[in-house]
Write a structure and sequence with these properties.
alpha/beta; Rossmann fold; 2 domains; 7-stranded mixed β-sheet; 6-stranded parallel β-sheet; 13 strands
């Protein structure tokens, strides 16, 4: 059995913690991130900033957990009276089977990324689709009937399907595996969207890892005009080739950092019952990614 590794938030200095008044005490509650790997995660920085801003006596730590250790990790958090937890790949589906209660949102997406405990019961929730809805409505201004090309059919694309369906979009799903594409289509249609060819999409959405290491998407997805929006779920210090192509053509280019913050804000609100300090969380994310 592989040990569970704790990952410290690398960009939070001792001085910053002290000045924020966030020195842990005997009353401090734990919030954990469970996944593998987690060393790249910005969640500790984002949530540490939110806890400090709102005076929440909690500490957020990331743990690299092997798949076979997930039941023990989740049970341990419950025994420790943790305030909550986030779950990332590859455990987002596995934790559903461990939950005492699965919210309608987690059931709709088929995965959980947010855990909380109430009266000894673990509740599995999901903020992926709702977070993307915020981005689609506020940043993209997606309207019912707008055409979208969704590239990908993995776990991230399932949440995209739910969010796009709720926005009433018409979506062309491009997937290597037809059965995976059908799973996205079912969620999209159940949420209120429709599918079919979209020759002139308003939005092109990359829900694959392509671009993480500088790869270009297939040529079709690298052609834009000024009326289009390119949204990449990836984020980093520099734009991906997909987003660079959109910018060069005069299209609007958005990376996944806004989605990450939107998801985090919804998790924070579930754990604390407080309105999330989105501007503070966004600033922490930008600083952590090197912008």
């Amino acid at each position: 059995m592989r040990s569970i590794t704790r990952t410290w938030p690398a960009t939070v200095s001792c001085r910053a913690v002290s000045e924020a008044g966030a020195i842990p005490s005997a009353a401090t509650r734990l919030v954990a991130l469970l996944g593998s790997p987690v060393g790249h995660s910005l969640s500790p920085q984002i949530h540490t900033s939110a806890f400090a801003e709102c005076g929440v006596d909690a500490v957020y730590l990331a743990f690299d957990v092997a798949p076979g250790d997930v039941p023990a990790a989740v049970a341990g958090l419950g025994s420790l009276d943790a305030l909550g937890a986030n779950v990332t790949v590859p455990h987002k589906r596995a934790v559903l089977d461990l939950a005492d209660e699965v919210t309608a949102e987690a059931a709709a997406v088929g995965a959980a990324n947010t855990l909380s405990w109430q009266d000894g019961r673990m509740i599995a929730d999901n903020t992926d689709a709702s977070g993307l809805q915020r981005v689609l409505r506020h940043d993209v201004a997606l309207a019912p009937g707008d055409g979208v090309v969704l590239f990908g059919a993995g776990g991230a694309a399932l949440a995209c399907g739910v969010a796009l369906g709720r926005c009433g979009a018409r979506v062309e799903i491009v997937a290597r595996r037809p059965e995976a594409g059908l799973a996205v289509e079912r969620r999209l249609v159940a949420a209120g969207g429709s599918t079919g060819p979209v020759p002139e999409p308003r939005l092109v959405l990359n829900a694959t890892p392509l671009g993480l290491h500088g790869e270009a998407l297939p040529r079709r997805f690298m052609r834009f005009n000024r009326d289009q929006v390119a949204l990449d779920l990836l984020y980093g210090p520099e734009p991906t080739p997909f987003l660079n192509a959109a910018t060069a053509a005069g299209a609007r280019a958005l990376d996944g950092l806004g989605l990450l913050v939107a998801q985090a804000a919804l998790s924070f609100e579930r754990w604390t019952g407080l309105q999330a300090p989105v501007k503070t969380m966004s600033a922490a994310a930008r600083q952590a990614v090197g912008r």
